[in-house]
Amino acid sequence: NRWSYTQSPIIWRELLDRGGKGLLLGGFNEFLEHAQEYYGLSSSMLSELMLKIAKENLQSKLELIEEDQKYLSLINPMHIWISSASNVTAYNLIPLLTSGELFGSETEVSLHLLDSEEKEDLL
To answer: What percent of the chain has pLDDT over 70?
Structure first.
């Protein structure tokens, strides 16, 4: 999108159902103007309340990030490196390694596929 906007929050509109490119609306004030013009909606929210909500949102986001990091730290996958991974043997081996039949369904597996640069697009 190559937007250049230095203030926070940044608000954009994206037409997901149509696969359209996002449209930069700007910051909160520009969003309110857009909502007024496009939808006929207005807000009487005071700046103090907006700042309080922004602070609560930031705190919630930080808590979610911390929780995600906690869960990610519990994952300790078995690392399996496969060289010449575009080879038909590796192609047949990969489903066996990831199915849970070999190491059990509780074992996390992290595959690292290696091959030459010219065969990289086959991976």
So the answer is: 82
At 113, is the pLDDT very low, low, confident or very high (cuts 50, 70, 90)?
very high
- DSSP lists the bridge partners of residue 81 as 112
Q: Which residue in the block uniquely carries the two structure tokens 């070999």?
A: 102
72: three-class secondary structure by DSSP: helix
Q: List the structure tokens of 42.
A: 């207005």
Contact 82, 122 (CB under 8 A): no
CB 81 within 8 A of CB 123: no
Q: Is the peptide bond before 9 cis (omega within 30 degrees of 0)?
A: yes
Neighbours of 26 (CB within 10 A): 16
| Model confidence pTM above 0.85 | no
**Contact indicator for 12, 30 with CB cutoff of 8 Å:** no
Residue 42: half-sphere exposure toward Cβ, Cα within 13 Å: 2
